[in-house]
UniProtKB/TrEMBL annotation:
Transmembrane spans: 110-129
Domain HTH araC/xylS-type: 224-322
Keyword Transcription regulation included in the entry's annotation: yes
InterPro entries on file: Class_I_gatase-like, Homeodomain-like_sf, HTH_AraC, HTH_AraC-typ_CS, INH-QAR, Tscrpt_reg_AraC-type_HTH
Entry keyword set: DNA-binding, Membrane, Transcription, Transcription regulation, Transmembrane, Transmembrane helix
Protein name per Swiss-Prot or TrEMBL: Helix-turn-helix domain-containing protein
SUPFAM superfamilies in UniProt: Class I glutamine amidotransferase-like (SSF52317), Homeodomain-like (SSF46689)
Organism domain of life: Bacteria
Lineage of producing organism: Bacteria, Pseudomonadati, Pseudomonadota, Gammaproteobacteria, Pseudomonadales
PROSITE patterns linked to this entry: HTH_ARAC_FAMILY_1, HTH_ARAC_FAMILY_2
Length: 327
């Protein structure tokens, strides 16, 4: 089944209003994207989409409801849904449970889920982070790990872009998250000039290997299901037969549709996912290159080194020397 998921002339970004959500972050992000539209217009970037920001909330029945919009009508398809931070303690189980289905439905339609600080608890409670990495405010790292033991909580990362899910750590990390989304969807120049206008720190240049931004808005549900599966398992044990089975398609049909939807062959896509995981392991662990190669699904460390260097421009050892976090 295929469905058109967005208007190419518009980038629809939603903000989730839940009880206790920090209004400063909600309004700040709304203003940040408004400034980005102005910056893009002043730059004459007529080929870029117009950002439209909408606010949403989940009612007592668990239904996602449109609250307000920077346009005249509710967005029909969101490219991104941001779960803002809160000054309160970690959300209680009943509130998280009420948001589980709407977030799963959004994710299943190709919407990127992005969180700030304890907003990650909503995504974790949806089950979408099981077996996957995530970050949050240092004060809630232990609570996140205890409540959701299947989530790989990474305490040292301020922002983690894992393709279809983005998590950020600090209470004020909404500025960095917003700028990262601009860089991803509007380009580095718009992100940099928006930061300059707002007089905030520009988004740090992404490291080699962290540049993979998979297409999720293509509307092919069978291919999107495989993309989510690959992101969830890090691209491991994903041969053609397994991917085609996941999509429910014959192999030749799957190959054709996957490349048409993503612009990549399945093997190329898996390599990007695996190298992205390997980069984080090189940055934040002391495992040797062979262990990392095996950990991301390569039986031959030599083959891993070749793929890694082709994608990042560096050998694994060079990457570690330049970007590893000390201690």
């Amino acid at each position: 089944m295929r469905a058109k998921t967005d208007n190419p002339a518009r980038l629809d970004i939603g903000l989730l209003l839940y009880p206790g959500a920090q209004r400063a972050a909600v309004h700040g992000l709304t203003d940040l994207f408004t400034v980005a539209n102005r910056v893009a217009a002043e730059l004459g970037a007529v080929e870029l989409p117009q950002i439209r920001v909408s606010h949403w909330q989940v009612d007592e029945a668990g239904l996602l409801q449109w609250v307000e919009d920077s346009g005249s009508e509710a967005a029909t398809a969101l490219r991104v849904m941001i779960i803002p931070p809160s000054l309160d303690s970690a959300p209680h189980a009943e509130l998280l449970a009420r948001h589980r289905l709407p977030l799963n439905q959004l994710h299943g339609r190709g919407t990127v889920l992005a969180s700030v600080c304890i907003g990650v608890f909503f995504i974790a409670a949806s089950g979408l982070l099981d077996g996957r990495p995530a970050c949050t405010h240092w004060n809630y790292v232990q609570a996140l790990a205890q409540r959701f033991p299947l989530v790989r909580v990474e305490a040292n990362q301020p922002l983690l872009d894992d393709g279809d899910i983005m998590t950020s750590a600090g209470l004020m990390a909404w500025t960095e998250l917003g700028l990262r989304l601009l860089e991803r969807f509007m380009g580095a120049t718009v992100a940099r000039e928006t930061a300059r206008y707002l007089a905030v720190e520009p988004v740090a240049a992404p490291l080699p290997g962290a540049l993979f931004n998979p297409r999720l808005d293509h509307g092919d549900e069978a291919v999107l299901k495989v993309q989510h599966w690959l992101q969830g398992n890090g691209g491991q044990d994903a041969d053609l037969a397994a991917m085609a089975a996941c999509a429910g398609l014959e192999e030749r049909t799957f190959l054709r549709r996957f490349r048409a939807a993503t612009g990549l062959r399945p093997t190329e896509y898996c390599q990007q996912v695996r190298v992205g995981r390997a980069c984080r392991l090189l940055e934040f662990t002391r495992r040797n290159v062979e262990q990392i190669a095996w950990g991301v699904g390569y039986q031959d460390p030599g083959a891993f080194r070749k793929v890694f260097q082709r994608i990042t421009g560096l050998t694994p050892s060079e990457y570690r020397r330049r970007f590893a976090v000390s201690g």
